[in-house]
From TrEMBL:
GO cellular-component term (any): endoplasmic reticulum membrane
InterPro entries the UniProt entry points to: Nuclear_fusion_Kar5
Species of origin: Cutaneotrichosporon oleaginosum
Keywords of this entry: Endoplasmic reticulum, Glycoprotein, Karyogamy, Membrane, Nucleus, Signal, Transmembrane, Transmembrane helix
Gene Ontology annotations of biological process type: karyogamy involved in conjugation with cellular fusion; nuclear membrane fusion involved in karyogamy
Biased composition (Basic and acidic residues): 115-127
Region feature Disordered, mapped onto this chain: 108-127
Record-given protein name: Uncharacterized protein
Length: 277
């Protein structure tokens, strides 16, 4: 199927096939530093096609990305969007082989990397006057003015796509930081719990040792008290123990003598038999 050219912002283009659109979406995503999904969902096919129609357009898109990266703000003011729209318009004029007006040369990305910036002009009011003269020249041509209005809207969409991506990145960063803080807090609580458990275990061990020592001391005190209150009981107990030990010692000696003297063993056994009869 043959594709017919279409007019977009005053410039003739061929419509993109789906595969070609995927490649273009990938290009615009890489230029802006955003994902292809954001580029497709936020910008749409028309904007994507217009803003990278040529190398000049791609250069302007890269300028938007660098401006967003260097800025802490989440939006452009009207003058910045106007500068971008003028640069896109001049790119379309160059693609159509039109001469760039002299009043608009500071916005020509062929000669500058920062649209609207002129080292010779530093005062803000002078910059506004130069911007007004460029817009007046573009306004003389209905086609150029229509192109400018289209790119003014596209520049706003491009910046929205960038801020959308930045919001996503900011949310991810906040989530990561919050998660790391929670992990650090849990680790701190875990260390404190382990230290508390160790302290409790050491305290229990010391208490148990003290109870054991106290119990032994109490028993010794009771025994000492008993011995001190009844000395005769202690003497009788010692005498009985001595008699028991003496009898056991005598018996061991007799058994040892019989074991090593066979004649005594026989006599002892004979005497035992006679005694039994």
């Amino acid at each position: 199927m043959k594709l017919l050219p279409i007019m977009v912002a005053g410039v003739s283009f061929l419509p993109l096939r789906r595969a070609e659109h995927a490649v273009v979406a990938e290009d615009i995503a890489s230029l802006l530093g955003i994902t292809e999904e954001v580029a497709t969902d936020v910008l749409g096919r028309g904007v994507i096609h217009r803003v990278i129609a040529s190398g000049c357009h791609a250069k302007t898109v890269r300028h938007i990305h660098s401006t967003a990266a260097a800025s802490d703000q989440f939006g452009l003011d009207e003058s910045q969007i106007t500068d971008l729209a003028i640069s896109f318009t001049l790119c379309s004029m160059a693609s159509a082989l039109q001469k760039v007006p002299q009043e608009c040369e500071p916005w020509d990305t062929t000669y500058t990397t920062h649209p609207g910036e002129d080292s010779a002009v530093r005062h803000p009011k002078e910059k506004e006057r130069r911007r007004g003269r460029c817009l007046a020249v573009l306004h003389r041509s209905p086609q150029d003015w229509a192109t400018f209005n289209t790119y003014f809207s596209d520049s706003t969409q491009l910046w929205l796509a960038l801020t959308h991506q930045r919001h996503i990145e900011l949310a991810q960063e906040l989530y990561t930081n919050a998660t790391q803080e929670k992990i650090a807090l849990l680790q701190l609580l875990h260390r404190k719990a382990e230290a508390s458990f160790a302290t409790d275990a050491e305290r229990d061990r010391r208490v148990e040792e003290q109870l054991t020592v106290s119990s032994a001391a109490s028993k010794c005190s009771v025994a000492k008290a008993c011995l001190s209150t009844n000395p005769s009981h202690s003497h009788n107990w010692s005498f009985r123990n001595w008699r028991t030990w003496s009898s056991a010692s005598t018996l061991r000696k007799q058994n040892s003598t019989i074991l090593w003297n066979p004649s005594r063993r026989v006599n002892a056994s004979f005497g035992t038999k006679r005694h039994n009869t």
